[in-house]
């Protein structure tokens, strides 16, 4: 039996380019895990099943991918405790899928190499490779290029999930991004992101990162604006939305901002985790 704590994520910066020939958009994004955590247990079973999350698709696909790639006629039983909000842009589905890949692989007599797990992860979704290993990362390509980076971790995060903003599909957000004429100067802006990451010595330096290119297309900018008004030294839409995040130096300021938003949004006060 294998058990894992499965953290959510925020996109501390997201630079998006035009779509590639395969239809996926080029991106450069700084991704950071946060301490909103699902728990996943995987064990061998006669047939594959997922318990605890009726709407699952990704965990089931991940378990099936490990069985097929290994050539082992094994089944897996996954039990999920869901704490990461669903359809919030926090990567809960991708995180669970990555954990399922890793945990199921550990149960094999001859585990698949990391390179093969990485290939399976990218087929499952563009965020999944990020979650295969701990630590913040600069993610490129369309999600398949993952590079560990070092950035400050001494800040408090407020997550706001507005009550009145519905989750748009990622495809819809990217289509709207294209309609708005996004994607210009991608290579230059990706270099700017890398340079900004290298300059981040203190938490407040994160304020100098490029903003989220999908903020306007997501329709979720209002919550980020409100977090900035409440004192966040950096606030932005998270990924393709609809959640937003704000970074604060002091927990008491984060708690105050969280309380001020609760009539309009679900909120969480949390921390970055490695």
Task: Please give a structural write-up.
The chain has 274 residues and is of the alpha+beta class. The protein has eight helices and ten strands. The chain has helices spanning 58-70, 92-106, 114-124, 170-179, 186-198, 215-218, 221-229, 251-261, and strands spanning 2-19, 25-45, 49-51, 75-81, 137-140, 145-148, 156-162, 234-237, 244-248, 265-270. Strands 1, 2, 3, 4, 5 and 6 form a six-stranded mixed sheet that branches. A hairpin with a 6-residue loop joins β8 (234-237) and β9 (244-248). α1 runs parallel beside α2 (92-106), α1 (58-70) packs antiparallel against α3 (114-124) and α2 (92-106) packs antiparallel against α3. The mean pLDDT is 95.
């Amino acid at each position: 039996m294998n058990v894992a704590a499965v953290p959510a994520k925020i996109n501390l910066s997201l630079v998006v380019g035009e779509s590639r020939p395969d239809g996926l958009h080029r991106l450069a994004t700084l991704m950071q895990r946060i301490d909103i955590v699902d728990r996943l247990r995987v064990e061998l079973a006669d047939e594959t099943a997922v318990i605890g999350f009726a709407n699952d698709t990704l965990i089931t696909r991940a378990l099936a991918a490990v069985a097929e790639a290994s050539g082992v006629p094994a089944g897996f039983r996954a039990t999920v405790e869901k704490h990461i909000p669903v359809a919030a842009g926090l990567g809960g589905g991708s995180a669970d899928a990555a954990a399922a890949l890793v945990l199921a692989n550990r149960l094999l007599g001859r585990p698949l190499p990391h390179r093969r797990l990485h290939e399976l992860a990218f087929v499952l979704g563009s965020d999944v490779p990020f979650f295969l290993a701990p630590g913040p990362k600069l993610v490129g390509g369309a999600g398949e290029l993952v590079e560990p980076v070092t950035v400050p971790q001494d800040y408090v995060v407020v997550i706001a999930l507005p009550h009145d903003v519905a989750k748009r599909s990622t495809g819809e957000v990217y289509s709207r991004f294209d309609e708005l004429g996004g994607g210009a100067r991608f290579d230059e802006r990706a270099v700017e992101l890398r340079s900004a990451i290298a300059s981040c010595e203190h938490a407040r330096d994160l304020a100098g990162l490029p903003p989220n290119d999908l903020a306007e297309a997501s329709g979720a900018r209002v919550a980020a604006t409100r977090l900035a008004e409440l004192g966040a030294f950096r606030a932005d839409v998270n990924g393709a939305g609809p959640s937003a995040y704000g970074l604060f130096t002091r927990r008491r300021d984060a708690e105050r901002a969280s309380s001020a938003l609760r009539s309009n949004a679900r909120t969480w006060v949390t921390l970055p985790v490695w």
